[in-house]
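Dear colleague,

Thank you for sharing your sequence with our group. We've completed the structure prediction you requested, and as agreed, I am returning the results in plain text so they can be pasted directly into your records. Please verify that the sequence below matches your submission; if there's any discrepancy, let me know and we will rerun it promptly.
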Amino acid sequence: MLCDNVKQLCMLVLALAMLEACSWGACKSSDVSVSSKIQAIVQDIRAGNLDGKTGELENLAREVGPDIIPELARFIEDEDYHVRACITITLGELCDGSTIPLLVGRLQDKEFNVRRPAIDALYYYPREALMKQRRFLLDPLARYAVMKELIGYNYKAILLIGDLGGKSKMGDIHKVLASVATREQAPNVQRVREACVKALFKLGDKKAADEVLASLSQYDDVSKRVFGIESVQYAGRLEFVSALVPLLDDTRDPKPFRYVEFDMRVRDLVINTIAEITKIKLSFKVPGARYTNEQAQEVRKRVAGIAK
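Please find the predicted structure tokens below.
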């Protein structure tokens, strides 16, 4: 009887060992499969077969998840910039905190088509994740922001510096602001200039604050007024909410002069911004659009209550 029990125990141990070995083998096989798939995609890109390869790599990354990051990282400095660009885009799509250092490294890539997806990916990362690595981010972002060949495409780096509270980089932002004044024909130059003012405003620059306040008071120029609203929203500065209140009566549509999402009027932008910054509870749903006079009046009263 004892002998039979010993035999059964031995068989159980052997079965468990075989199961573990099979499991390890399957994982190993899976790892090899993922690695080989990435290698095949990279070889296609190197051979000039670019169509759909970024999509293939992104689909594989979504299927595997963050475990794929070490395999992708092997090719982040590939000699072929198409490979580097594809890897950078895929890492950005994963939106995993461990990819941030890899993306930051690509901000100084010699190829614009690699640098751009790197800054795009970082810009859309949750700010909480970026703040955890803030001290490693500010210097590379500032270097990216001031690169002369990027004027017109560097506004995201500038806004990130503002979001990360990079007061030590205000001097770099002022340099960019001065440079765009002499490059009026550069693409997106107005967007870059506005990004500089927004970031400086958020970081506490008085001159930028004066410009934002002046923009809010520009009734005849609805585009500047919308820029002022956007600046207050971006900065999230509660002390400037009172400057928005007079704009609750402005029901003009800024679309002919400036891009805004959905069917927004000036009043709608103001109410959404006030609600976002103050976190006040209202009897109607926010954010939204096409607010009524009664709803605007409710916001006015609630803001007055906060001021008291």
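Summary note from our side: Confidence is low (pLDDT under 50) at residues 1-29.

Kind regards,
the structure core
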